[in-house]
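ZP: hey, is the protoporphyrin IX containing FE complex queued? I don't see it on the tracker
AM: it wasn't, my bad. submitting now with these inputs:
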Amino acid sequence: MLSAQHRDIVKATVPLLETGGEALTRHFYGIMLAEYPEVRPLFNQAHQASGAQPRALANGILQYARHIDRLDTLGPLVGQIVQKHVSLQVLPEQYPIVGSCLLRAIREVLGPDIATDAVIEAWAAAYQQLADLLIGAEEDVYAAAAATPGGWRGARRFEVVRKVPESVEITSLYLRPADGGAVMPFKPGQYIGIRLTVDGQEVRRNYSLSAPPNGSTYRISVKREPGGVVSNHLHDALGIGAAIDLFPPAGEFVLAPGERPLALISGGVGITPTLPMLHAAHEQRRPVTFVHFARNAAVHAFRDWVDDLVARSPQARRFYCHEQAGTLPVDAHGRACTDLLARWLPQARDMDAYFIGPPPFMAAVKRALGELGVPPAQMHWEFFGPAAALET
Ligand SMILES: Cc1cc2nc3c(=O)[nH]c(=O)nc-3n(C[C@H](O)[C@H](O)[C@H](O)COP(=O)(O)OP(=O)(O)OC[C@H]3O[C@@H](n4cnc5c(N)ncnc54)[C@H](O)[C@@H]3O)c2cc1C
Ligand code: HEM
């Protein structure tokens, strides 16, 4: 329990975090990634270069400081952090590293006049409280995965058993445990963490599970990113029989149980988590509208699979929209907008909507759903990178 005095001091730093939180977390990462090489492989360097991860951490710390009196009002933030941490195997022994670098960054960025001993002491206690909360919640998830049939703790060696091109830029990899055992089920929409070595450097990334659970293999479907370290390696260097380490499935972008009609709206490679979701809707006979936006026919993946499933599901409908005209028939040309979604989504707006794709796409979809009257609590989205605000 934090003392009332510690809480007051932390709350008093909220205005500083609002204006200078990102400078603080940038400095923090600068210190930690330079001085603690053992945690470097967990972090995606592109998220450092773009500033997305320092921004996500700054927002996390700010929300924590704002809600320090009532941590139960922090909303989904803690769960999101826990799932991301677990998927990349953050461990309890790494928390003191983050804590000491954060306190050092507070001292160095704010200077001795503001970062007095009392401020540092209050933030040290506040950090410890949050660390204990996260460590406890993360252990619960690790333990649950280990106790599930086909589950495991830590890294498990898998091998690539099949590779299938799905479009000119997306390739699926089918992964089977090297120990020959079963794999735990996952909730449609969840992702795994992978660990591998590229050019002598250990790297970790997340990929959504793109095929329904089958008990024996997982499938990921990877878009080649120009200049991307891992996606190019998975496309070009990782052949059949190659080894790759997986951390158990995680993530909260999953279908809420219920009977409301579903809208699954994806842009580009964001289609991957919506595929097991569509399959689950089919099995549950739940009404579903599947909408996919792609730049053109050449990059439009999984069209045949979706068409086949929808043809077998009387309660499912699908719509495709390409930005550029091509030879294959589509339902519209252009980008995601209110007019298109108004035409395609059920007229009764009481639906559960799941959308995923590039952030500007998600912002457009969120805005459109709002205009159409879909209740905000029934909108769900996820980032293929650090969480951020969706500017609508
Ligand atoms: C929950 C979740 C699910 C995901 N699911 C999928 C999925 O199903 N399919 C999928 O394809 N992806 C998915 N991703 C994204 C995936 O994790 C990777 O981010 C993506 O494959 C790019 O990784 P990369 O190593 O190829 O590129 P990176 O090396 O991370 O590079 C990304 C971009 O940044 C640039 N860059 C890299 N390093 C620097 C630097 N130091 N300075 C400046 N620029 C730099 C690169 O040129 C490139 O353009 C998911 C992500 C999350 C968080
Ligand atoms: C109280 C302490 C911590 C807080 C408040 C915190 C907060 C966060 C937040 C807000 C995110 C972004 C989540 C998202 O994108 O949805 C994140 C991601 C992450 N955190 Fe933490 N974290 C803490 C401790 C740690 C520790 C101890 C480690 C291990 C070294 C760690 C490693 C990571 C990694 C690897 C990511 C993903 C980074 C990426 O995408 O490149 N965190 N954390």
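AM: back. DSSP finds twelve helices and twelve strands in the chain.
ZP: great, adding it to the tracker
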